[in-house]
Amino acid sequence: MTIHVINPNSLSDVTEGIDAAIAPMRAVSPVAIETHTLSEGPPGIETAAHIAQVVAPLTKRVEDLTQGASAFVVACYSDPGVAALRETVWQPVIGIGEAAVLTAMQRGARFGTISIQPGSIPRHMAALGVMGVATRCAGDLALSLSVRELSDAQRTEARLRKVGTALRDAHGADVLILACAGMARYRADLEEELGLPVIDPCQAATAMAIAAVALERAAGSKGS
What we know:
The protein is α/β, with parallel strands linked by helices.
Protein backbone atom coordinates (compact mmCIF):
# COMPACT_ATOMS: atom_id res chain seq x y z
CA MET A 1 0.00 0.00 0.00
CA THR A 2 1.20 3.51 -0.81
CA ILE A 3 0.41 7.17 -0.17
CA HIS A 4 0.85 8.96 -3.49
CA VAL A 5 1.81 12.66 -3.37
CA ILE A 6 1.25 14.22 -6.80
CA ASN A 7 2.72 17.55 -7.88
CA PRO A 8 0.30 18.80 -10.57
CA ASN A 9 2.87 21.05 -12.22
CA SER A 10 5.65 19.86 -14.50
CA LEU A 11 8.63 21.16 -12.51
CA SER A 12 10.64 18.23 -11.20
CA ASP A 13 12.62 20.47 -8.84
CA VAL A 14 9.35 21.35 -7.08
CA THR A 15 8.66 17.63 -6.67
CA GLU A 16 12.17 17.15 -5.30
CA GLY A 17 11.51 19.88 -2.74
CA ILE A 18 8.23 18.25 -1.75
CA ASP A 19 9.96 14.89 -1.40
CA ALA A 20 12.66 16.38 0.83
CA ALA A 21 10.05 18.08 3.01
CA ILE A 22 8.07 14.91 3.62
CA ALA A 23 11.05 12.53 3.77
CA PRO A 24 11.17 12.44 7.61
CA MET A 25 7.55 11.26 7.63
CA ARG A 26 8.44 8.00 5.93
CA ALA A 27 9.86 6.75 9.22
CA VAL A 28 6.49 7.03 10.94
CA SER A 29 4.20 6.08 8.05
CA PRO A 30 2.65 2.60 8.12
CA VAL A 31 2.83 2.50 4.31
CA ALA A 32 5.22 3.71 1.60
CA ILE A 33 5.09 7.33 0.43
CA GLU A 34 5.87 8.15 -3.21
CA THR A 35 6.03 11.51 -4.95
CA HIS A 36 5.09 12.12 -8.59
CA THR A 37 5.36 14.93 -11.12
CA LEU A 38 2.46 15.52 -13.51
CA SER A 39 4.43 16.02 -16.73
CA GLU A 40 1.29 17.18 -18.54
CA GLY A 41 0.86 20.10 -16.14
CA PRO A 42 2.06 23.68 -16.64
CA PRO A 43 5.35 24.83 -15.06
CA GLY A 44 3.45 26.27 -12.11
CA ILE A 45 -0.25 26.51 -11.32
CA GLU A 46 -0.82 30.24 -11.01
CA THR A 47 -4.19 30.96 -12.67
CA ALA A 48 -7.73 29.59 -12.87
CA ALA A 49 -6.90 28.41 -16.38
CA HIS A 50 -3.95 26.40 -15.05
CA ILE A 51 -6.21 24.81 -12.44
CA ALA A 52 -8.73 23.78 -15.08
CA GLN A 53 -5.93 22.47 -17.32
CA VAL A 54 -4.61 19.95 -14.82
CA VAL A 55 -7.85 18.36 -13.63
CA ALA A 56 -8.20 15.83 -16.48
CA PRO A 57 -4.56 14.58 -16.51
CA LEU A 58 -4.49 14.59 -12.71
CA THR A 59 -7.63 12.46 -12.59
CA LYS A 60 -6.14 10.00 -15.06
CA ARG A 61 -2.92 9.75 -13.03
CA VAL A 62 -4.86 9.07 -9.86
CA GLU A 63 -6.97 6.43 -11.58
CA ASP A 64 -3.78 4.76 -12.88
CA LEU A 65 -2.38 4.65 -9.33
CA THR A 66 -5.54 3.47 -7.59
CA GLN A 67 -4.50 -0.18 -7.37
CA GLY A 68 -2.53 -0.55 -4.15
CA ALA A 69 -3.02 3.07 -3.11
CA SER A 70 -3.80 3.99 0.50
CA ALA A 71 -4.35 7.73 -0.02
CA PHE A 72 -3.65 10.56 -2.43
CA VAL A 73 -2.24 14.02 -1.76
CA VAL A 74 -2.74 16.72 -4.40
CA ALA A 75 0.31 18.93 -3.91
CA CYS A 76 -0.97 22.28 -5.15
CA TYR A 77 -2.33 24.90 -2.77
CA SER A 78 -5.35 25.59 -5.01
CA ASP A 79 -6.45 21.96 -4.48
CA PRO A 80 -7.23 21.38 -8.18
CA GLY A 81 -9.59 18.49 -8.84
CA VAL A 82 -9.80 17.42 -5.20
CA ALA A 83 -13.61 17.49 -5.02
CA ALA A 84 -13.93 15.53 -8.27
CA LEU A 85 -11.31 12.99 -7.21
CA ARG A 86 -13.16 12.36 -3.96
CA GLU A 87 -16.13 11.29 -6.08
CA THR A 88 -13.92 9.09 -8.28
CA VAL A 89 -11.84 6.96 -5.90
CA TRP A 90 -12.60 5.42 -2.51
CA GLN A 91 -9.24 6.32 -0.99
CA PRO A 92 -8.83 9.57 0.97
CA VAL A 93 -7.88 12.49 -1.31
CA ILE A 94 -6.24 15.35 0.57
CA GLY A 95 -5.60 18.79 -0.87
CA ILE A 96 -2.64 20.60 0.61
CA GLY A 97 -4.48 23.93 0.79
CA GLU A 98 -7.29 22.60 2.95
CA ALA A 99 -4.83 20.58 5.04
CA ALA A 100 -2.60 23.58 5.68
CA VAL A 101 -5.48 25.72 6.90
CA LEU A 102 -6.80 23.02 9.23
CA THR A 103 -3.29 22.48 10.62
CA ALA A 104 -2.66 26.20 11.07
CA MET A 105 -5.84 26.60 13.11
CA GLN A 106 -4.49 24.00 15.53
CA ARG A 107 -1.32 26.03 16.03
CA GLY A 108 -2.66 29.56 16.44
CA ALA A 109 -5.68 31.83 16.66
CA ARG A 110 -5.10 33.73 13.41
CA PHE A 111 -3.10 32.49 10.44
CA GLY A 112 -1.36 34.54 7.79
CA THR A 113 -1.01 33.20 4.26
CA ILE A 114 2.06 33.80 2.08
CA SER A 115 0.98 33.53 -1.56
CA ILE A 116 3.15 33.57 -4.64
CA GLN A 117 1.12 35.97 -6.81
CA PRO A 118 -1.53 38.62 -5.99
CA GLY A 119 -3.91 36.84 -8.36
CA SER A 120 -3.90 33.81 -6.07
CA ILE A 121 -5.33 35.72 -3.12
CA PRO A 122 -8.98 35.94 -4.27
CA ARG A 123 -9.02 32.18 -4.89
CA HIS A 124 -7.58 31.54 -1.44
CA MET A 125 -10.14 33.80 0.23
CA ALA A 126 -12.97 32.14 -1.69
CA ALA A 127 -11.76 28.73 -0.50
CA LEU A 128 -11.68 29.96 3.11
CA GLY A 129 -15.24 31.17 2.68
CA VAL A 130 -16.34 27.74 1.50
CA MET A 131 -14.60 26.20 4.52
CA GLY A 132 -16.27 28.74 6.81
CA VAL A 133 -13.01 29.89 8.38
CA ALA A 134 -12.33 33.24 6.70
CA THR A 135 -12.50 35.07 10.03
CA ARG A 136 -9.47 33.11 11.25
CA CYS A 137 -7.31 34.57 8.44
CA ALA A 138 -5.22 37.53 9.57
CA GLY A 139 -4.16 38.35 6.03
CA ASP A 140 -2.92 36.99 2.71
CA LEU A 141 0.09 38.71 1.13
CA ALA A 142 1.96 37.81 -2.05
CA LEU A 143 5.64 37.44 -2.82
CA SER A 144 4.97 38.48 -6.44
CA LEU A 145 7.12 35.61 -7.71
CA SER A 146 6.29 32.80 -10.11
CA VAL A 147 6.65 29.14 -9.14
CA ARG A 148 9.74 28.93 -11.32
CA GLU A 149 11.27 32.00 -9.63
CA LEU A 150 11.00 30.35 -6.22
CA SER A 151 14.17 28.43 -7.09
CA ASP A 152 16.12 31.71 -6.68
CA ALA A 153 16.90 31.17 -3.01
CA GLN A 154 18.32 34.60 -2.17
CA ARG A 155 15.44 36.50 -3.75
CA THR A 156 12.78 34.19 -2.32
CA GLU A 157 14.19 34.24 1.20
CA ALA A 158 14.25 38.04 1.21
CA ARG A 159 10.62 38.22 0.05
CA LEU A 160 9.54 35.60 2.58
CA ARG A 161 11.13 37.53 5.43
CA LYS A 162 9.49 40.79 4.35
CA VAL A 163 6.02 39.33 3.81
CA GLY A 164 6.15 37.09 6.88
CA THR A 165 7.21 40.00 9.08
CA ALA A 166 4.34 42.12 7.77
CA LEU A 167 1.81 39.36 8.46
CA ARG A 168 3.17 38.96 11.99
CA ASP A 169 3.64 42.60 12.97
CA ALA A 170 1.02 44.50 10.94
CA HIS A 171 -1.71 41.88 10.59
CA GLY A 172 -1.40 40.01 13.87
CA ALA A 173 -0.81 36.52 12.50
CA ASP A 174 0.49 34.02 15.06
CA VAL A 175 1.04 31.20 12.55
CA LEU A 176 2.01 31.36 8.87
CA ILE A 177 1.11 29.19 5.88
CA LEU A 178 3.38 28.82 2.85
CA ALA A 179 0.74 28.80 0.11
CA CYS A 180 2.73 26.95 -2.54
CA ALA A 181 4.38 23.54 -2.62
CA GLY A 182 7.44 25.22 -4.17
CA MET A 183 8.24 27.01 -0.88
CA ALA A 184 8.85 23.80 1.09
CA ARG A 185 12.63 24.21 1.31
CA TYR A 186 12.30 27.58 3.07
CA ARG A 187 9.95 26.60 5.91
CA ALA A 188 12.41 25.79 8.70
CA ASP A 189 14.60 28.88 8.26
CA LEU A 190 11.58 31.20 8.09
CA GLU A 191 10.10 29.68 11.24
CA GLU A 192 13.36 30.18 13.13
CA GLU A 193 13.80 33.74 11.92
CA LEU A 194 10.25 34.95 12.62
CA GLY A 195 9.60 32.97 15.79
CA LEU A 196 6.22 31.72 14.60
CA PRO A 197 5.00 28.29 13.52
CA VAL A 198 5.27 28.03 9.73
CA ILE A 199 3.10 25.42 8.04
CA ASP A 200 4.33 23.64 4.93
CA PRO A 201 1.15 22.44 3.19
CA CYS A 202 2.70 19.26 1.79
CA GLN A 203 3.85 18.18 5.24
CA ALA A 204 0.41 18.99 6.68
CA ALA A 205 -1.40 17.01 3.99
CA THR A 206 0.96 14.03 4.18
CA ALA A 207 0.50 13.92 7.96
CA MET A 208 -3.25 13.78 7.41
CA ALA A 209 -2.83 11.01 4.85
CA ILE A 210 -0.79 8.99 7.34
CA ALA A 211 -3.48 9.57 9.98
CA ALA A 212 -6.18 8.47 7.52
CA VAL A 213 -4.34 5.21 6.86
CA ALA A 214 -3.98 4.64 10.60
CA LEU A 215 -7.71 5.24 11.15
CA GLU A 216 -8.63 2.84 8.36
CA ARG A 217 -6.37 0.17 9.83
CA ALA A 218 -7.79 0.69 13.31
CA ALA A 219 -11.31 0.29 11.90
CA GLY A 220 -10.30 -2.81 9.94
CA SER A 221 -11.45 -1.30 6.64
CA LYS A 222 -10.35 -2.24 3.13
CA GLY A 223 -7.57 0.37 3.32
CA SER A 224 -5.56 -1.78 5.73
